[in-house]
Every structure is written in structure tokens, then in C-alpha cells.
What we know:
Elements: E1 6-8, E2 27-29, H1 40-43, E3 51-53, E4 77-79, E5 98-100, E6 122-124, E7 148-150, E8 169-171, E9 193-195, E10 219-221, E11 240-242, E12 264-266, E13 290-292, E14 311-313, E15 335-337, E16 368-370, E17 389-390
Parallel strand pairs: 1-2, 2-3, 3-4, 4-5, 5-6, 6-7, 7-8, 8-9, 9-10, 10-11, 11-12, 12-13, 13-14, 14-15, 15-16
Antiparallel strand pairs: 16-17
Amino acid sequence: MTNLNYLYLANNKLTLAPRFLPSTLISVDFAANYLTKIYGLTFGQKPNLRSVYLHNNKLADAGLPDHMFNGSSNVEILILSSNFLRHVPKHLPRALYKLHLKNNKLEKIPPGAFSELSNLRELYLQNNYLTDEGLDNETFWKLSSLEYLDLSSNNLSKVPAGLPRSLVLLHLEKNAIWSVGADVLTPIRNLEYLLLHSNQLRAEGIHPLAFQGLKRLHTVHLYNNALERVPSGLPRRVRTLMILHNQIAGIGRDDFATTYFLEELNLSYNRIASPHVHRDAFRKLRLLRSLDLSGNRLQTLPPGLPRNVRVLKVKRNELSALARGALAGMAQLRELYLTGNRLQHRGPPVLLGGARGWGGVPGTHSGYLWFEKKERKRNHKADFPVTEKLI
């Protein structure tokens, strides 16, 4: 078959790959079979080959020949996810820009395993058994074009050193990370997304200089950790900060003093109590558009809420009343969520709604106010609907 370019044999019951395939192939898909063996000329000696899909098979290290891609140096995409590999395959094609090795049994990546892959842009290593000892300072150092690295769902206890400086997105969630050192992230000047959620981070485990100089870092996920306070030294240009589901008890005056560009802040499901929120805590957040304080221990709305917030969520707290003027000046507010509190209506509706807008403040715009049906009994004295109400 001297003209065959594309061969699709996915979702069958093959246990062995063909020993010989046409040299004209451009793409081969053997995904979701029962393959245990690849031969030297299955993918070798194919100069036009660009993509190989081998995920969801039963391949172990012994089933891959050392020079599996000998004479096929133009392969750009190699998908080996969901197999039984304990080692990174040897002699990978230099043209690779996307390599999937997730859902295998990798425990260690030896030095030099990626040393020839200077064109690699995406590397997927999640859901393996990688430890701190399984990576060293030179594991990734030759990957000068790498932009996407996924190390989530492994056994790391700290952020690895020697990460590529070209990274834009770094996945480190679902490990056992408790430490972010002073200089492991700072060389990554292009970093924009940092995902560290579902680890074991405490505030003292994040060095105050951990994010210094990361001017492009705009999205940081720190939720589902053990933070007892807002970490110091947050990225100065962060725009989205997710620190929900931690153990934060209060917000200090300077916790967000340098995050001038913050647009979305999620502090929900912590332990924040009203007396421990400084009245000037949000004074610098003039660009903030969304603030989520749900699931805390607030008895009153925090003072000094950012004036330009459009979405304010204070669900499932302990609010029994809203003080006069609590929402004054919030002319941009579009959505206010108060579900699951202890609010009761005891007089004219001067705070919520009316012709003059939120809190009776002139010039405010219309928006949405949520009280859910399940709160009907708690708010039984209310003379306004407890379903969605358009103000």
C-alpha cells in the first residue's frame, strides 16, 4: 500500500502491533487496544510520520524497542498515556512538540531523558508516581520551548527546581506539596498560570519571594490547601486568585496591599470572622470585579468593600442583618448572593431594592439578588419573594 497516509485502528482488540507498516504513513492511531508489543519497523523508517496515538493500551517498557522511531525523526505528536510504562521511552524524535505520558507508572525521570527535545511545547506527566527524588535540576533544563507542563497528581512534596524558563502554564495540583522555595519559580518569567490547588501548603511554606518578578503571572490557584492566612508576597499582577477551601481566619490590612490588578478573588469556605477583617483590607483593589466570601463566619458585611465589584457572594454565612449603608457607593454591583444566612425582614425595604437601587443609593444600576427556596422557612417574615428577584 504505497500511498497509504492515514491508518486508524483504534478501539479494536489488537495485542501486537503490525511488524511492518508503509513508509508513506503520516498518522497512525492504535489507541484503545490491548497492545503489549511494538516492533522496530512498526513506526521506524517513516520520514513522513507526524503523529502516533498509542494511549489506552497495555504497553510496558519491555514492549517498546530502544529505537522505536529510528528513521522517523519528524514525529511531532506522541500519545502514550494510560499504559504501564515505568520509564520515559529512549531516543524520542527530536521534532516532538507534544508528548503525553500521563496515567503511567513513572517514578523517576533520568537525566537526559528529554535532552534532545528542544522543540517540545507540551509535556503531560500527570497521574504518575513521580517524587522529589525522581526529578533533578537537569530533568527539564533542555526543554527551551516548553510552554505547558502538567505534573499534577504525583507524589511531589515541593515545587521542582530547574523548571523551563519558557513555561506559560504549570500544573502542580493534587500532589503533597508543602513548600514553594524562594527561587524555583522566579526564573520562569513567562509564567501566566500557576495551579497549586489540592496540596498541603501552609502560609509559612510559601516563601515571601516565591513570586517575585513574575510580571506575567495572572492566574493562581491555591484552593484546597491548609493556608491559615493569606500568603505574603502574592504576585503583584495577579488578576485571578483562588484561595477558597483553606483555613484562613482573617484578612489583614496589608494582605492585598500590592495586588492592584486583582479582578477576581475567591475566599469562600474558610474560617473568616467579621472581627478579623480589617476595615482597610480591600482598599487597593480598585479593579476587583468579583468577590466571593461564601461559607465563612461573617456576622456582618466587611467594611470597605471595593466600590467597583459587580458580583458579591456572601452565601452561607451568619448574617442576620445588613447595616444601613453596608452597600453604599457600590454603583457597579450587578449580582448579590445572600443565600443561606439568617436574614429577617423587620421593616421597610430600604436596604435591598427600591427605586433608588442598592441600599437606596442614587445612581446605582439594576442587578440580581438571590434568596433560594430552601431558605423560605428561615426567612419566613420576608415580604419579598425568596426565589430569584430582579431589582
